[in-house]
Amino acid sequence: MQTSALRILSIITLVAAPLFAHGDHDQKPVAGPNGGRLITAVEPHAEFLVTPERKVRVTFVGDDGKPVATVGRSVKVTTGQRSAPTTLTFVESDGALLSEQTLPEGNNHPTVVVIRASADAKPVVERFNLNLADCGGCDRPEYACTCGH
Predict the structure, then answer these.
(1) Is the C or the N end of the chain the one with fewer CB within 10 Å?
(2) 3-state SS string over the chain?
(3) What is the pLDDT of residues 102-128, one digit of tens each?
(4) Which of 56, 81, 64, 44 is closest to 141 using CA atoms?
(5) Domain definitions of the chain by residue range
């Protein structure tokens, strides 16, 4: 009797698990208006873009894709080798936040982005691999890839 109940419970678990496993990772990534990675965990959304000078530009955008004021918002990025991470701080520049430092050498780094809507707001943390290599499917850098491979 107990063995049958365990089998039934195991079957129910195997069948039901995929129903609860779907999340944001199943959605196709959306590009930011400038071709960067769109961070949707924060409102308004934030576009993370690496400039040709290897600086990071964060632009806050509304649902319409248009830039929103950066007043009161702050961003901090930690990237690079885990044994010697680089912390990027930001200043306002042309309606966005631009890092004062450049990214470390290399094209593939674990990255943590901390965004605060205001000085006393709870921080939103986004973690991803900052891969600067070009994607073969969508011709964007891998960190901003929209083809969902």
Answers:
(1) N
(2) CHHHHHHHHHHHHHHHHHHHHCCHHHCCCCECCCCCEEECCCCCEEEEEECCCCCEEEEEECCCCCECCCCCCEEEEEEEECCEEEEECEEEECCEEEECCCCCCCCEEEEEEEEECCCCCCCEEEEEEEECCECCCCCCEHHHCCCCC
(3) 999 999 999 999 999 888 889 999 999
(4) 56
(5) 27-144
- Total-model pTM: 0.79
Domain 27-144 grouped into CATH 2.60.40? yes
Q: Please list, in sequence order, all residues whose beta carbon lies within 8 angstroms of the beta carbon of residue 89, skipping any fewer than 6 positions away.
A: 76, 99, 100, 101
Give the pLDDT confidence of 14-52 residue by residue, as tens digits: 444 444 443 444 556 677 889 999 999 999 999 999 999
